[in-house]
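Incident review: delayed structure delivery

Summary: a single-chain prediction request sat in the queue longer than the usual turnaround. Root cause was a stuck worker, restarted by the on-call engineer. No data loss occurred. The affected request and its eventual output are reproduced below so the record is complete for anyone auditing the incident later.

Affected input:
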Amino acid sequence: MRLSFQIPKRVRLVYFEETGYQLLRNYIRENSSVLYLDPRKSLNVWVALRMILSRRLSGSDYYATFLKLVRPDFIVSLQDNNLRLHASAVYSSQSLVVAIQNGRRGSFSHDGSTNFWRELKELSSRGGGADVIMVFDTSSANLYRHALVKKNPRVVIVGNLANNALDISSNTEQAKEQRLVYISSFPNLGHRGDRSQWKSTTFGYIDGIPLSFDEFFRIEGHVAKRCAMLAKKWSIPFVIIGKRPSWQSGEFQFFSEHLSGLDWTYVPLERKSSSYNAITDRDLIVNVDSTLGYEMFSRGLRVAFITARMDSAQRPGILEQRFGYPEILSPTGLFWTDKSDVNEFDRVISFIRESSDQEWKRESSYIKDKLMKFDYGNSEFCRELEKLGIPTHGPGLWDSDLVPSE
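Output delivered after worker restart:
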């Protein structure tokens, strides 16, 4: 924890937490601003003293005190699923709160008795909730409108800011050949990646139903193995794009066990741009339900979705884990399946390899627009900020050299 002795002063704009901070500053042109960090990361002594004098000692009280001192006109954040951000409206009624979606959202929770959407709805009944929410897609927009029905926020579909901001064309120029690429969604298990309690420990709950780490993630190993075998059959390289940095060894160990004796390359996540930089337009991409998979699909790349987590976990009745649900209701299609079956794996992966460009475009274009908007350069995002009174540098790309390390 860092200590700050700087006396808080009024600012026009607060960046809530550091998620996407550099990305936001790439677009927002506001000199009167400050970055708010959780007091466990950075504690401002003056805010803490003011909080103590009020005889309130929680993290929420610290944030409420901070807002009273800086009195911002705007609070902006990419932590759209942070309830404290949505409580900003309660703590600082004069501030306009802008929440920007940073990941795909569902009913998944680490608490079996509730989830984010239920808690957000309850918070809305007390005056909480962001005033403006910028989301990936129609489904996310509907989730927020339902949860914040009493707040009635402005909800705008802009896609994923990071995806919109990065150019991957240079990757394709450097590509030597077509590859089969699997996008991992492996969980954060810390430095050692201990899986000794993998089968007995609950990873989380969906609609209150508990799922162990093994139940939730076992499909990843099965799909990766089949991809490696198909890549060998087709004589093309197989690459796994990691979800975790190299210092977290669990992901590499997990796939090593499933891919024993097969050829593969592992690309860990060393920077926020690593995954984007590792993909080319020529790649055949396979994933279960990765946000990155949907992002690449929104760009028009060939992506197969094997959304079979719940079938593999013997929980086929949980529908929200299906491809594109609820916008897409069919459990199977030409390039997606919810079945944990090797024949289905082969079918959808073969389609993204063998279909003509015309066929791929015909079968995917009407779907991708429903599932994630792609707005190259973030023009829509900038327009919305300007409407709100937040000055911007205008649309543009994010230089990957400026993307911070994890």
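Verification: The longest strand covers residues 96-100.
Action items: add queue-age alerting; document worker restart procedure.
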